Amino acid sequence: MTGTEDNDYCAVFVQGASRQDVTGLVAAALGVPADEYTVRFGDLELDIQPNPDAGLADEFVGWPLKIDVEGRRATMVDAVSRFLTAAWDAGYQAVAACDFESELPELGGYPRYRA
User: Fold this and answer.
1) Which of 11, 17, 65, 101 falls 20 to 30 Å from 54 in CA-CA distance?
2) Could you give the CA distance from residue 9 to residue 44 in angstroms, rounded to a whole number?
3) Contact at 8 Å (CB) between 92 and 15?
4) Which top-rank group of organisms is this from (predicted)?
């Protein structure tokens, strides 16, 4: 995705589900189809990938899956909020790391898992 001044980035770390299940949950939460492990929602692109840092940390940054979200911030806040809520409702652990965590439910999820 090409960057512009209006584009932003968010990483969502997930534990407790397979890559396929997370992809399906992202698509269902946003009401759009998935294209293998990528979900497109408006101007957003959400790529569900194995986390290259999985197992290297005890905190969420070491969880097995990472969703890279790129696009406009206004759309991103809505999409990430919807996914986080759906993930928690499904019993998965999910935390968003971005510049707008204060605009997300439960501050992006970090307080849920703080030791």
Assistant:
1) 101
2) 10
3) yes
4) Bacteria
Q: How many residues does the chain have?
A: 115
CB atoms within 10 A of CB 20: 12
Q: From 3.30.70.100, 3.30.70.2860, 3.50.50.60, 3.40.50.300, which CATH number describes the 7-113 domain?
A: 3.30.70.2860
Specify which residues 65 forms β-bridges with: 14, 50
Residue 57's SS3 state is coil
Count of beta carbons in the 10 Å neighbourhood of residue 41: 21
Tell whether pTM > 0.70: yes
Q: Write out pLDDT tens, residues 28-47.
A: 999 999 999 999 999 999 99
